[in-house]
Design goal:
By secondary structure, the chain is an all-alpha fold. Helix content is about 60%, strand content about 5%. It has six helices and two strands; from the N terminus they run αααααββα. A hairpin with a 5-residue loop joins strand 1 and strand 2. Helix 1 (about 5-20) packs antiparallel against helix 5. The longest helix is centred in the C-terminal third of the chain and has 26 residues, at about 125-150.
Amino acid sequence: MNRQIENIRKARTSLLEQVEDLSADQFNQIPHGFQNNISWNMGHMIVVQERICYQKSGLQLFINDDFVEKFKPGSRPDGVIGVLEIVNIKQLLVTTLDQLEADYKNQIFANYNGWTSRLGTKIGNIDDGLEFLAFHEQLHAATIIAIMKMVTK
């Protein structure tokens, strides 16, 4: 098992436990000083995983184009997300990671196209991509926790 995938899995499991009792209103609330909400951050984590791993390898994403548009870098929440979509996002945080782990074991990321992140980090292969993904996830998990503190006051 890849160490980075396992770290992401542990962090996502913890995050899902922490947001378990939040209402749809709390998932959708954008506190003062923030540009997005909990649901956007969680959806964004999924989109970035798919793009870093699959798109950069020339492979088909497991999420649809509408989902990508809604949560891609540079996007913002464009309305209220309902309970069913929140449940779907929570499920995708697990199922897309399960798929990534299986695909990593099957070594399907052989044709990875290297790139440089906006932070200047050079990503040359899937292992570099997973390392960057783990860092990215930590940033958004911290944002979610900060938002959660604001919406549960």
